[in-house]
């Protein structure tokens, strides 16, 4: 029983962090209505940024958020403004331009290969890590401190995003644009500016996830691919555009990965995740927790 509780706790903690990686992706899809195939590579950029900030300055890993989040927001804002916005303008009559998918795929390859060229293929980890090996004891259950803090940061990020979308003028403009960009533009909202802001926030959230991963996960140029696939599965499971769905979808994946290997070969856990993914696509394409309007 203790081992099962341990696996459940590990699954919830790691799954919530998976949900954090999917949170920025689901926001971008909810507003721009396109899939960002470069999301994993942007997470990788966030991880490298956090790694070098901590390595060079020696600050606590989570203090890197102060620098990483605004840098990643600006990177995402101008990436959307310079690379993706021209496509939206050229295909303004197309609600979901497929060309954007091709462009974000190109950004994925450019970022991954640029990281490989600059940093090399080496796996990097923090040399001075105050969270290494630290755990909290709950009776006979061990809770890794880095993953627990990651869970807390995930919940705070999701709440902050929800309040921003619900309570601020910019948040309401983002929701209006996501529902009907033509009607929003008639109310004086510039949809292209909203796209820039939403993309920047989505990339900033990927930066938050990068900071969360750095204390317990290696950084290398192709690390984003691993989480990119999981993020897409989680977004589909939880519901495209759903904040709550992203977190709950991530927890479901985390629980399957944590509990499954105790009862079957680890390869079967991946099969279950992909099987669940396909089942949701066939039975409820909007996702298990997705609604017509999630915001």
Number of helices: 11
- Give the helix/strand class: mainly alpha
User: Span between N and C termini?
Assistant: 39 Å
Note poorly predicted spans: none
Shape: globular
Task: Tell me the layout of helices and strands.
Layout: H1 2-32, H2 39-57, H3 65-90, H4 98-119, E1 135-138, E2 141-144, H5 145-167, H6 169-179, H7 181-186, H8 191-213, H9 223-238, H10 243-259, H11 266-283
Walk me through this protein's architecture.
- The longest helix is centred in the N-terminal third of the chain and has 31 residues, at 2-32.
- The chain is globular and about 60 Å long.
- It has a two-stranded antiparallel ribbon.
- The protein has eleven helices and two strands.
- The protein has helices at residues 2-32, 39-57, 65-90, 98-119, 145-167, 169-179, 181-186, 191-213, 223-238, 243-259, 266-283; strands at 135-138, 141-144.
- The model has no long low-confidence stretch (mean pLDDT 89).
- Helix 1 crosses helix 9 (223-238), helix 2 (39-57) crosses helix 8 (191-213) and helix 3 runs antiparallel to helix 4.
- A hairpin with a 2-residue loop joins strand 1 and strand 2 (141-144).
- The chain is mainly α and 295 residues long.
- The chain has a domain at 17-221.
């Amino acid at each position: 029983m203790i081992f099962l509780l341990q696996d459940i706790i590990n699954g919830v903690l790691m799954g919530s962090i998976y949900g954090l990686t999917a949170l920025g992706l689901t926001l971008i899809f909810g507003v721009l209505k396109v899939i960002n195939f470069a999301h994993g590579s942007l997470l990788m950029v966030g991880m490298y940024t956090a790694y070098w900030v901590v390595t060079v300055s020696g600050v606590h890993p989570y203090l890197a958020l102060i620098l990483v989040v605004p840098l990643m927001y600006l990177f995402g804002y101008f990436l959307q403004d310079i690379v993706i916005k021209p496509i939206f303008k050229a295909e303004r009559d197309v609600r979901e331009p497929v060309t954007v998918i091709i462009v974000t795929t190109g950004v994925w390859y450019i970022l991954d290969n640029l990281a490989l060229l600059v940093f090399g293929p080496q796996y990097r980890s923090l040399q001075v890590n105050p969270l290494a090996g630290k755990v909290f004891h709950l009776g006979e259950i061990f809770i890794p401190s880095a993953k627990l803090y990651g869970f807390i940061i995930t919940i705070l990020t999701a709440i902050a995003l929800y309040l921003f979308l619900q309570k601020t003028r910019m948040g309401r403009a983002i929701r209006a644009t996501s529902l009907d960009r033509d009607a929003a533009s008639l109310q004086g909202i510039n949809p292209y500016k909203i796209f820039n802001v939403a993309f920047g926030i989505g990339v900033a959230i990927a930066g938050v996830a990068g900071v969360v991963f750095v204390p317990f996960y290696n950084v290398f140029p192709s690390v984003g691919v691993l989480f990119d696939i999981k993020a897409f599965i989680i977004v589909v499971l939880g519901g495209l555009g759903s904040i709550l769905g992203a977190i709950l979808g991530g927890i479901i994946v985390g629980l399957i990965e944590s509990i499954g290997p105790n009862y079957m070969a680890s390869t079967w856990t991946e099969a279950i995740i992909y099987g669940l993914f396909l089942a949701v696509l066939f039975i409820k394409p909007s996702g298990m927790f997705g609604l017509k309007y999630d915001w």
